[in-house]
Each structure stands twice: as structure tokens, then as C-alpha cells.
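F.,

This is the one I mentioned.
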């Protein structure tokens, strides 16, 4: 273990490459999480509903379904994915984006998630370097990628991902490698949650509609706990601006009504990720621009 630490410390490029390769594998697993976690939650909700509202109804045993079972298979021919066809990114390229057995197309999103995970993690490794803080930022990046794609698919930010990440940020604040003190982390978490919670209730009181979900509050609390309340204005500004531009563009291109809901989680995740790496520089540049 000490040898690896010495190598990663003395040869940063080797560390970055190692992180990128590992993150390709993690990206493959994130594809599983993105697809299966919402379905696992839906199954659990259905079981809870049935147990509460129709307790006398005979419950039909459902096949086991979690992140490990059943094995990954082609959604068209149901052929199990073999190990040689499950090499991140490389297998998709070698197969030409098609199933080995039935030649049905394999969604390009799978290699995109893997590639994005590797690239973003490598950027974090380059910026943060080798150490506890870098490891926390890389792990946070992985979770943010999963949250982003789940929110795009289901308009949902699962507590199973946001809450552990929040606790990680709070516990990390107790270490010497933390970006903020424990007091700043707790204050940041509360400020992050309450900032969007307040907007949510103000919008609901004025319009009678829900403008965002509770998962957005919790994700903002994560960044508040990790970076402190000082970075929250930057994250809110970046996410709001990018969300508005992208949302208006998508609605215009797709021809949908303005009332069509758009997930806000991906913009918070992107803005928070930028703030984790360049938040202080961006804030200082903005203050200099204002002459402050």
C-alpha cells in the first residue's frame, strides 16, 4: 500500500491515469445504479402501498431484483451479458454498439456515462491531487453523475444517494483535509437546504404549484456541508442561469408547453461540481469584476 502511495505522490500522471481507468469501471456500475435503483424504489413503494391499504390481499412473490440480481442481459433477446462484452467502453466499440447475439442496438448512453465518469474523475484527480480530499471529491463526482441521469430519467433524486453523501460531507468536515470547519459545514448544510426550501414554498404560495422537489434541497445541503455557505450563492446563480438557458432551449426545440416540468438536479450537480474545483477562483474573479 505504501508503494502505491509513493508512486501516486511522485508521479501525478500515473495517479490521474489510474483514476481514469478505475472510473471507467465505476461508470459501468453507475449505469446499473441509474437503471435499477429507481425500479427498486418503485417496487418498494408498491409493496408498502399494498401492505398498508390492502393488507388482506395475497402478495405475489416477485423475482429478486437489486443492483446485483438478476444478471445484466440484452433488453431485446434477454441473452446474458458475458464478461468479455462487459468491458467498459471498449466492449461497446468492439461490438459496434450492437448486441453480440441479436444485433439489436445498444444505447450509446452506456459508454457516454462511462466516458464522462472517467473524464470528470481524471479532471478532479488533476485538480485536487492525491490525498483524502481528492478521494472525497472523486467519490462525490461519481454520485453526482448517478443523480444527474436518474433525475433526467425519473425527475427523482433518491435519498439513498443524497443522504449518504450529506453525511459524508459532514463527517469529512471533522478531518484535517476538510474544506470547511464542522461549524461551517453544519451551517452550510442548513443554509443550502433552507435556500431552496424557501423558494419552493414561496413559489407554491404564489402559484399553488410545486416548483421543485425535496431532493433538490438535500443536494444543495450536500454542497453547503462540503464547501460552506459562502459557495451557495455561486452554485444557485450558476444552476439557475444554465437551467434557464437549457430549459428554454429544450422547450423551444421540442415544442413543449412552458409548464412542462424540467429536472433541476442536473444543474445543481453541475454547478456544485464546478464550485468544488473552481468555486473560490470564480468568486474572487466576480468580486474583482465588481471592484470589491
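My design for it:
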Amino acid at each position: 500500500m505504501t508503494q502505491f502511495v509513493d508512486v501516486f505522490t511522485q508521479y501525478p500522471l500515473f495517479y490521474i491515469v489510474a483514476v481514469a481507468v478505475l472510473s471507467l469501471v465505476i461508470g459501468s456500475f453507475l449505469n446499473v445504479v441509474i437503471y435499477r435503483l429507481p425500479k427498486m424504489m418503485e417496487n418498494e413503494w408498491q409493496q408498502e402501498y399494498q401492505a398498508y391499504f390492502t393488507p388482506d390481499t395475497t402478495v405475489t412473490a416477485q423475482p429478486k431484483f437489486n443492483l446485483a440480481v438478476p444478471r445484466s442481459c440484452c433488453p431485446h433477446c434477454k441473452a446474458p451479458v458475458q464478461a468479455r462484452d462487459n468491458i467498459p467502453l471498449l466492449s461497446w466499440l468492439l461490438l459496434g454498439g450492437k448486441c453480440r447475439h441479436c444485433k439489436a442496438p445498444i444505447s450509446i448512453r452506456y459508454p457516454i456515462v462511462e466516458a464522462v465518469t472517467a473524464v470528470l474523475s481524471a479532471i478532479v484527480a488533476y485538480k485536487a491531487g492525491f490525498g483524502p480530499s481528492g478521494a472525497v471529491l472523486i467519490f462525490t463526482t461519481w454520485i453526482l453523475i448517478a443523480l444527474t441521469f436518474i433525475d433526467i430519467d425519473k425527475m427523482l433524486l433518491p435519498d439513498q444517494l443524497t443522504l449518504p453523501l450529506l453525511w459524508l460531507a459532514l463527517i469529512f468536515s471533522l478531518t484535517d483535509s476538510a474544506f470547511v470547519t464542522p461549524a461551517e459545514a453544519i451551517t452550510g448544510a442548513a443554509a443550502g437546504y433552507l435556500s431552496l426550501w424557501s423558494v419552493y414554498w414561496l413559489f407554491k404560495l404564489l402559484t399553488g404549484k410545486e416548483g421543485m422537489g425535496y431532493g433538490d434541497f438535500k443536494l444543495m445541503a450536500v454542497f453547503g456541508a462540503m464547501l460552506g455557505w459562502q459557495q451557495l450563492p455561486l452554485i444557485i446563480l450558476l444552476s439557475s442561469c444554465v437551467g434557464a438557458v437549457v430549459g428554454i432551449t429544450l422547450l423551444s426545440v421540442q415544442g413543449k408547453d412552458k409548464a412542462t416540468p424540467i429536472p433541476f438536479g442536473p444543474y445543481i450537480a453541475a454547478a456544485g461540481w464546478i464550485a468544488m474545483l473552481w468555486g473560490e477562483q470564480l468568486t474572487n474573479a466576480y468580486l474583482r469584476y465588481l471592484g470589491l
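Residues 12-53 form the longest helix (42 residues).

Talk soon.
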